[in-house]
Design goal:
With about 500 residues, this protein is an alpha+beta fold. The protein has 16 helices and 23 strands. The strands form 7 sheets. It has a 7-stranded mixed beta sheet with strand order 3-9-10-16-13-12-11. Strands 20-19-21-22-23 form a 5-stranded mixed beta sheet, with helices on both faces. The two termini are about 35 Å apart. Bound molecules: glycyl-adenosine-5'-phosphate.
Amino acid sequence: MNEDLFKQIIAHAKEYGFIFPSSEIYDGLSAVYDYGQNGVELKNNIKQYWWKAMVQYHENIVGLDSAIFMHPTIWKASGHVDAFNDPLIDNKDSKKRYRADVLIEDHIQKIEDKIEKEVEKAKKRFENFDEALYRQTNGRVLQYQQQVDDIRNRFAELMNNNDLVGLKALIEELGIACPISGTRNWTDVRQFNLMFATKLGSVADGADTIYLRPETAQGIFVNFLNIYKTGRMKLPFGIAQIGKAFRNEIVARQFIFRMREFEQMEMQFFVKPGEELKWFDYWKQTRLQWHKDLGIPAENYRFHDHEKLAHYANAATDIEFKFPFGFKELEGIHSRTNFDLSQHEKYSGKKLRYFDPEVNENYVPYVIETSIGVDRMFLAVFSHAYTEEKLEDGTTRTVLRLPAKLAPYKVAVLPLVKKDGLPEIGQEVFDVLKKDFMVQYEDKDAIGRRYRRQDAIGTPFCVTIDNQTKEDQTVTVRERDTMEQYRLPIADLTVELLKKLR
Ligand code: GAP
């Protein structure tokens, strides 16, 4: 885990108006964040990139915007009331509460960090032809790897069997201590439901308990029939939705990686029973390609196929991303069989079936789900883009190498000086470009400082107006990543920049 780098990234996100702690003037609210002037643009661009790829580019996928409040029986049917739990444990000395599974995962991560270091050492020793030391290091790697495998296997079994006593025993056996008190004085492990409950109606006393949705997916399932009928949809077809979700996470940390209020981009793809694994593979590859198309190198992604599946799933994988704190889940792709629709049939008493004219039969379709957190995607692109670069003159520049299509602003218009008619030309250029791009206009401070500010928010192009502009109506274009500069006629700017951005 690169803690210093991660701290720098969080500080940068705040300093440059991307992300602020929520309610900051009241000392903040744990695991809730606000997106500032640049953050909201980047977040909107991520959502648009997803929506285009899913809805616009697939003739058989349509959108939905369902309400956050839903009938409480939905959460009974989906299993969330009974089983959307995390195992929690308290340290009796620090009174701090932890997720038992996260304590174990962190322990595994520490061993994996050691493995990474030993592998690096082994590589060097191999390159230096130091055979004895190489063997020694390699031996340690194998030993640590065996430890990780053993813990993982036992951990998976305990989680699958909901064995809370076994989880506590494993924590004790691994000697896991509370990071605050340093002691191993643990309570028993208990289950904790993650849904936020509230009351519907103006009189809280007699009102029904309802939940803030913990996922957007159920809004899609309960609208399956509406969209299938009104959209005259034919299998296979998908319904996509972007919206807020809420989870009362016990351990909310790692900035916007795990939040209590967050946003999801989910798509449920309804297919003919028996065809689900073919579509599962299709979506696995298609979603990975969506990530790679941003130009972030492939080694930053990996699949983590689930060996143990939830009782309703017959295939599941995560796309993991290399965050500054290691590979973690970014997106989930699940083959959910007909579990959700069948449950809603049972609890609502309504038939949720598709009439298949080819076989003249009604059936409950099977479902492939793709689900990604907007905030987690934000953290992935933001942390990957953050770069501290040493320049030839010995100075450093901080540059956000964001994929251009996601950058909050595409162009900055910068008159070289705030006089001699240059600001007026700058305003004219701004008025032309703003029709096609998000543009920033800035005429304060030395040009070098303005370039740095634009680098720090990830603006791919700066357009500088200087005295030559008055003579030949050309401007200097400076590219963020290479810092290369060249002149272009104002009349060609829109077309040339559009070409480059595409
Ligand atoms: N409908 C399936 C579902 O919700 P999930 O694995 O619980 O599955 C899907 O969540 C995605 O939502 C995750 O891969 C992650 O990107 C995002 N996500 C989940 N919990 C989150 C949280 N507390 N904060 C931020 N993002 C979260």
